[in-house]
Amino acid sequence: MFKIIFIVFLVIAFVPPVRKFLFWLVVGRSMVNEQKKYNQQSQKQNRKDGDINVDYVPKNAKGHDYRGGEYVDYEEVED
Length: 79
Prior knowledge:
2 helices
């Protein structure tokens, strides 16, 4: 049993096509699915330049009564 596990480990460690295939099995499928989702979303968002799209406007927007900030003194510096 130990010999079989050792041989499988050696094959995985030192044979690049096997490593590449195992990596594809583990990570590649999820990456392909995420790329498909991203492409579908980007196709939905194809808009002309200058178009404006507002997805969400809160009803009780805080900060609408903002009247400005603090006044800060400064001195002009001539070169």
